[in-house]
Request: fold
Amino acid sequence: MAKIEASSPITPDTLFPILGDRLPVGLARLAAEATHADDGHLIEFKAMQARSILNKSVSKRKLSLAYSINPFRGCEFGCKYCYARYTHEFLQPAPIVTPPPGTYDAPQQSWALAFEREIYLKENAAWLLEQELKKIDPRDEIAIGTATDPYQPIERRVGITRSLLEVFVRRQGHRLGIITKSNLITRDIDLLQQIAARNTLVLHITITTADAALARKLEPRAPRPDLRFAAVKKLREAGLTTGVLCSPLLPGINDSLRSLEAVSSRAAAAGASFLGAHPLFLKSCSRPTWLSFVREHFPDLQPEYQRRYASMDFADSAYRNRMASLLRQLCRKHGLGERSSDALLTRHVYAAAGAPRKPPAPARSAQSAQTTLFATA
Ligand code: SF4
Reply:
């Protein structure tokens, strides 16, 4: 891996060491090679020049997350509940008709499906990051992977996320969270350790169920749960603060005590730093995909979803409180750090009752007492 010297002139080439002289032609060529997902879907990749890479949070909920970074636009994993599909609205030539919040059965829109079949690669991401980090307060939190998975399969070939980490390796004092469903993150342990030594770094592996068959239905192209638990273990053994996000909680599907017990016990066995979860958020862009999935695979649950989400995008407070209480109990039982589930992007983690969790066999103990976390897309 070529190093970027601080005194070197900053150019897209120096900020894409993983691609070297293949940029931009190489990335464009890679992007032009459509691949088939293993379920037969054709996935197209397209190189794009992003205008900026640090997206400022515009949440009205006064969350502490300041910026997000998404190295790709779109996501191969194609989770049925994904609420990041809106990021492909730009493919729509005409003005978008957005149904009012709570419209139960919104019409399917072609760009929502394109989100998982037409992936845009931000080829200048690292170059932009180097420039934009100079302009922000390093104490502002940054989350990588709020509207795409930064370790989806194409990352193995193009290394855009890795190129972003190479930028953070040369910086200090930042507060960084990474969210993924992929065990590919363990490829970058070397860089993650370097970042954690001089910055606050919290890793989040999303595992919605320990049941491989259910995961395959919900997240058709994401790695199996056992690979994700193994990634948690490996990251913890490398001394990195790593938790499990069991989000979203899907009423009637993965929110039973038995299902959550399975996730939390395996998270504990992997040495996870914490466990968090928040209920399904059903935006209009994700309703058609999710509701047709429920109709096909869980027809008996249709009335429940109709009741819960007919007039609002969020689960009601009674359900949120019940699930938060259940999560707290499970965290205490398994000695996992816990976090509240009433916010979407950032929140505090509280130490579990008793001694704070230690990694099973840490190579180093960096980042053991961090307090601010991020959630998943
Ligand atoms: S939920 Fe996350 S991993 Fe799944 S498709 Fe959306 S962005 Fe990708």
In short: The chain has one domain: 23-376. Residues 23-376 form a domain with the TIM Barrel fold (CATH 3.20.20.70). Confidence is low (pLDDT under 50) at residues 1-25, 341-377.
